[in-house]
Amino acid sequence: MNKAVKPFCFFATCIWQSLLEYENALSPVDAYALGVVDEVYDSKLPSLREAMESQTPNQPELPPRPLSPQADKQIALLGG
């Protein structure tokens, strides 16, 4: 394991073990900060889902799809 990563892994393991030992009241903001949850409802904290939903994909205008011969027959039968 990398020397730079090892202290972080030890720190994270200690936090998770202490959280699992007893009943711990963890606020939504604390859970977000620890990475336990991805988003907190009714907060101003950034979330990946909201960022992705706010972006409108650019889709090109496609030409109308030509009708198949069967669709032409059905339209003719319906009186169109």
What report would you give on this structure?
The protein has a domain at 1-50. 49% of the residues lie in helices and 0% in strands. The protein has four helices and no strands. The longest helix is centred in the first third of the chain and has 16 residues, at 6-21. The radius of gyration is 27 Å and the shape is elongated. The mean pLDDT is 79.
What is the overall pLDDT average? 79
Oligomer: single chain
The helix/strand class is: mainly alpha
Beta strands, count: 0
Report the sheet-strand fraction: under 5%
Straight-line distance between termini: 72 Å
User: Count of DSSP helices?
Assistant: 4
**How would you sum up the major sheet?**
none
| Proportion in helices | 40-55%
Secondary structure blueprint with pairings:
Blueprint: H1 6-21, H2 28-34, H3 48-54, H4 69-77
Features:
80 residues; mainly alpha; 4 helices
Would you kindly provide a brief summary of this structure?
By secondary structure, this protein is an all-alpha fold. Helices cover 49% and strands 0% of the residues.
